[in-house]
# Entry
Amino acid sequence: MSLPLALLVDDSESILTFGRAVLAGHFDVEVASHGREALAKAAKLRPDLIVLDLSMPEMDGSEVLARLKADPQLCTTPVVILSSESFRERECLAAGADAFLEKPAAADHLRSTALRVLEERRRQERARGLAILPMGAGPHDLALPLESVHRVLYQTKLKQLPGAPSLVSGYFELEQEPVGVLDLAQVLRVEHSTPLLERILVVMKQSGLSIALSVDRVHDPEEIPAESILPREPLGGAEADVLDPALVAFVRHGSGTIPVLAPLSLLSPRLLSALPGLLRDRPRDRPRENPEESSNP
# Structure
């Protein structure tokens, strides 16, 4: 399943290589070699964590940090400063950095600090409450964080996406961009409870990728207070291997509880890496003939 995304920013190729190796298995990793590239990638990819050097060409790390904190979309992204300039630690922490590590940092220290800072930020976000969009596929009800939802649409006709696995139903165009459609019932290994033409598409944008979940039902968005957010615990049942890595939290909803899932964590890393290429190389003029769709009046 997909991992949180870390953006490593350093003008040293050896440091970038070291950071990739240290965080591999715990994070997906993107890199930038100077400050301007870092800001562009942060705006596009919305990383879960940034590891930032200070002394770099074009724009130094302190300026990058200031711009991140001034951006409403990026100001809550946790930042770990990794620098040999230990005398600037107090300055960086006062400017909003979450941690400061002096170079050369031990591998286990960098890894543990990155994981700790990310978990602390998630805990802070949960303490403030959680806005969700409840939905369901087949017998299962769940929710996505509302911030991850771009649009909610009625089911539309899809075009074929050659080479995609069976859980990818196809794609459609939205705002002149291709949107890959994932069948949530297939992801959860259950049967749909509504006919194809009555389903809903929940569109998300993350890491530069547009994806829609095809679901049976969507309810009104809700703001869940902190006291109704339950601790994250392992899931049971046949779908546990699919859902557990994507689980953000459980929330009290109606007379019971439902899981809140990080949507792209429902996809395997292999599919996440392949889907942009599949969408880029899509056929431009062949509408998908969906057998299930054609069977509906």
